[in-house]
Amino acid sequence: SIPTGPAGPLRFPDNFGWGAATSAYQIEGAAKEDGRGESVWDTFSRVPGRTRNGDTGDVAADHYHRYAEDLDLMRDLGLRSYRFSISWPRIQPDGTGAPNQRGLDFYRRLLDGLHERGIAPMATLFHWDLPQALQDAGGWESRDTAHRFADYADLVFGALGDRVPAWLTINEPKTVVQNGYLTGHHAPGRQDPDAAYLVAHHLQLAHGLAVGALRASGSDSRIGPALNLHPCYPADDSPQAAAAARLYDSYENRLYLDSLLRGSYPEDLLADLGPQSRMVQGVRDGDLAIISAPIDLLAVQYYTPIYVTADGGTERRWTTSEAEWQQIYPQGMYDLLTRVTRDYGPIPLTITENGLPTPDTLAPDDTVHDAGRISFLRDHLTAVHQAIAAGVPLESFHVWSLLDNFEWDAGYDQRWGLVYVDYPTQRRVLKSSATWYRSVITDGGF
Ligand code: GBH
Fold first, then answer.
1. pTM of the model
2. Which of 105, 136, 277, 397 could share a disulfide with 273, CB 3.0–4.6 Å?
3. Of residues 349, 308, 413, the one with CA closest to residue 168
4. What is the mean pLDDT of residues 302-309?
5. Whole-number Å distance between alpha carbons of 179 and 328
6. 172 annotated active-site
7. Closest ligand 1 atom number to CA of residue 174
């Protein structure tokens, strides 16, 4: 548990990478500009009933046009690290072939702007916006998509690699698996468990192939995956709940961690899926060697714990945020970070997402009081600090998110940003949490 030390300032390491995160489809807008192709989210968000209020990312926070202003905001906040994603359909409108130069130019301008302001970029290659043409060819159910991803990665490494010291391959493969192919709440909106775990394997394979492409290019930039991990606790003291939590953990965490860091899928998960499952049938000799190619850093995203009941269901124990799936439990951050280090060794870690949505409104005096975000971040950063003190090699922390943005199926109703976006005017207003975070960065703690 988190030691409760004497009250007083918490100091983080001098070189700690204070940051914030975004993703392309959630902030850029400009969906039809400069040769950008369609992605699965352009398609999905247009299907009636899939997103709240029928919201789409067509305009989003208009970052594509306002990136210079947003770079200034980052500088004003004192950010040392900015984690963003590259839109695959801007680079390859149909998912294959020659690059669209105007798409690359946008990211080159963005990277130049970060460099000028002394902010270290961390670029994610894929944050769910698969080119629709590749979905039409089978999407992540098709093994070929993993190879198309490696080609795309290779192209981006060649064009932008000189400006990017740290790459992340695939954002939250688990969310694609679970929301895209189990619940159907995300693109492509499928409900097919047998397909879902084959998709998991192909996403892992795509990651490994991209790591191989970076190494083959001779680059000395670092690369790793970005995983959303969930501590899975038994809901009671029974041996049944303990066993159920252990199996649940194999689907939430070990499926991804073990394949990347141990070169094997968890035996209990494979047994649970069964030998005839599409995933087990789809794993070929050599795949796990590709997937477990050495990585330079592991990006962890933490939002909520899961309590697993004896019958394998889940239970709610703590207050939830405005997102009904998120229980607020800072201790989970400590448990997760120390577990990853204990079970998988001292691999360099970065937290690439942590945050919550709050019911923010713009006051008449042009302020936004998001006290809930300040206390959430303070409590989670306290847990982060304790994890570092316990020996976890954690380099940096990125708030999700820099800006209010398109929160997928929840549309624009949920506001996750440090910075408020007044969508009708696209005006940016620093929330109280942004001012607080700036002082944390300046002081190196709180
Ligand atoms: C991350 O996803 C994403 O990387 C980021 O893009 C997103 O904006 C941010 O966090 C905030 O959500 O099936 O309806 O019960 C978090 C992934 C989203 C996974 C919600 C679990 C459950 C929704 N989580 N999802 S539901």
1. 0.97
2. 277
3. 349
4. 98
5. 21
6. yes
7. 19
